[in-house]
Specification:
Rossmann fold, 309 residues, 27% strand, 6-stranded parallel sheet, single chain, 2 domains, 15 strands, 7-stranded mixed sheet, Quinone Oxidoreductase, Chain A, domain 1, 8 helices, alpha/beta
Length: 309
């Protein structure tokens, strides 16, 4: 099969080449990939550390080529969205059926491919905050793929959404169009406490955000875009009155169960137009180096999609 292979000598450390077809385990479906979306985490960390010849990629959408031998998951011919540790940047992918969601017929599989990491992370983080109707929710790093999904999902759930971005003048209108009620530079700009925070940035945003939680508030940290230390002041976690009953939590998406149901739900919302995939760049997989250059330079706000052709 054709695949994007890690090659330290190639532009962006990737080249198109041939790789062995995957051999699915009994609980895995064999999926023919139509499109894949890129994530900053796999570009900044996984790609840089992987050996030559590896086939990477977390997110992909395609069509089931061969159903799982154990009878789980959808039948051959079903359009699906898939999540895994690797293998998305190839024509064929073996996928655990509990990390595979079904997609409505006729949906744009390029848009659907943006869902797995960004959409499912946003959904899981917001669920961790609890009921959102009438609650104030801050989304930091809101111009990234996960942030844009989080803004939309929080608004759908009835939250008062505050979106944080490094350049509100440039991105404010776009974030308000997605559902943000306010757009700020960071947690320090909040005019009153918030009940929940989905943090994609870390560093001072994590520290300052936690200090601005209301009673019973929860901050879910899912990203480290700042690459800065999280230095909390003395007493930040003490039982002082102003720190009463606040929580700081994290999770790792690929350890979560029930992802097949989440991916199916999100695919339906994107296919119907109720969620906007916010594709900022789209091209064929022989243009992968161009997209990676934009991601490395942090010049891409939204998702990058590669159509396999």
């Amino acid at each position: 099969m054709r695949a994007l292979l890690v090659d330290p000598t190639a532009p962006a450390r990737l080249r198109l080449g041939e790789a062995p077809d995957p051999e699915p385990a009994p609980h895995q479906a064999l999926v023919r990939t139509v499109a894949t979306s890129l994530n900053s985490g796999e570009i900044h960390h996984v790609l840089a550390e992987s050996p030559a010849g590896a086939v990477l990629g977390w997110d992909a959408a395609g069509v089931v080529e061969r159903a799982a031998a154990d009878g789980s998951g959808p039948a051959a011919g079903t359009p699906v969205v898939t999540l895994g540790w690797d293998g998305a940047w190839a024509e064929l992918r073996a996928v655990d059926t509990d990390r595979l969601g079904t997609v409505p017929e006729g949906a744009d599989l390029g848009a659907i491919s943006t869902i797995p990491v960004a959409g499912a992370t946003a959904l899981r983080a917001l669920r961790r905050l609890g009921p959102l109707l009438g609650r104030r929710v801050l989304v930091t790093g809101a111009t990234g793929g996960t942030g844009r999904y989080a803004v939309q999902l929080a608004r759908r759930a009835g939250a008062y959404v505050v979106a944080s971005t490094g350049d509100p003048r440039a991105h404010g209108d776009g974030l308000r169009a997605l559902g943000a009620h306010e757009v700020v530079t960071g947690p320090e700009d909040l005019t009153e406490p918030v009940h929940g925070i989905v943090d994609m940035v870390g560093g001072r945003h994590l520290v300052e955000g936690y200090a601005r939680l209301a009673e019973h508030g929860t901050l879910v940290n899912v990203g480290r875009a700042a690459l800065a230390p999280d230095t909390f002041p003395p007493g930040a976690f003490s039982g002082a009155p102003e720190a009463h009953d606040r929580a700081l939590v994290s999770f790792f998406l690929l350890r979560c169960t029930g992802l097949d149901e989440d991916l199916t739900l999100l695919a339906g919302l994107v296919a119907s137009g109720e969620l906007d995939a916010q594709i900022a760049w789209r091209g064929t997989w022989d243009q992968a180096a161009d997209a990676i250059d934009l991601l490395v330079g942090r010049r891409l706000h939204g998702k990058a999609v590669l159509d396999l052709s």
